[in-house]
Amino acid sequence: MSSQPVLRVGLVIADEMEFKPFAEWSQDQSERRENQLLGYERISFALENQGRKIQLDAVLCGIGKVNAATAAAFLASEGVDIMLNIGLSGAISNVRRGDFVAGTQYVEADFDLTPLGYQLGEKPGQEFCYQADPRLLEAVQKACPGLKSGILGCGDLFLNNADKKDLYYKTFDLTAFDMETGAIGSVCYRAGIPYLSIRKISDDAAEQSVDEYTEMNNLAESSLVDVLQSLLNQLMVGDSFWN
């Protein structure tokens, strides 16, 4: 008798208020475990349907590129088949507060060697714009019709400056800005792991961003987890990641 097929999914979440609704959803799931990964809080559980099983391993990593890359790298080393990320982002172009965006590409917008003659974001001899997995993009668009998509930029700063926002838009054609997506993208690119980030727009990344972000973040809404559930359900019934 063949064993049950299992898809291992890693999930990186930066902020504790973004993680809170995920932790609440996990309470009633089978095979639930809580432990730590390098001091980061980790929750794991299983989802099953039609003879298939998704083993979900989620890490609350803390804000910023170093935290996100560290957590993603260790999830990668443990053999996840897919890497996902959810969180809040600031609007750059063609989105407004409350919209959901699936990243098509991920770039470290704050990486700056321009004094040495390189373009903003460019890493000498390395890839620096990381692609979302097209199968994951297709799955989330099927699961959540009307979900927006676009290029996500990240950096180790809270973006609340209109001039810098305009620079990032003109340089990278960004849709939204956050503090983790490009770092996770770098890990997944090197590890060969399919990756997708889904972001909810919390603020305008300019003058009003602090108040707007703080208000939405403090709500700890379940809407991003709802999108995540829809995506996982779609992955369960689709055939793209099952042998």
UniProtKB/TrEMBL annotation:
Transmembrane segments: none annotated. The keyword Hydrolase applies. Its EC number is 3.2.2.9. It is an enzyme of class 3 (hydrolase). CDD domains: MTAN (cd09008). GO terms for molecular function: adenosylhomocysteine nucleosidase activity; methylthioadenosine nucleosidase activity. Residues 8-232 form the Nucleoside phosphorylase domain. GO terms for biological process: L-methionine salvage from methylthioadenosine; L-methionine salvage from S-adenosylmethionine; nucleoside catabolic process. Pathway: Amino-acid biosynthesis; L-methionine biosynthesis via salvage pathway; S-methyl-5-thio-alpha-D-ribose 1-phosphate from S-methyl-5'-thioadenosine (hydrolase route): step 1/2. The keyword Iron does not apply. One of its GO terms (cellular component) is cytosol. Signal peptide: none annotated. Keywords: Amino-acid biosynthesis, Hydrolase, Methionine biosynthesis. This is adenosylhomocysteine nucleosidase. It comes from Solibaculum mannosilyticum.
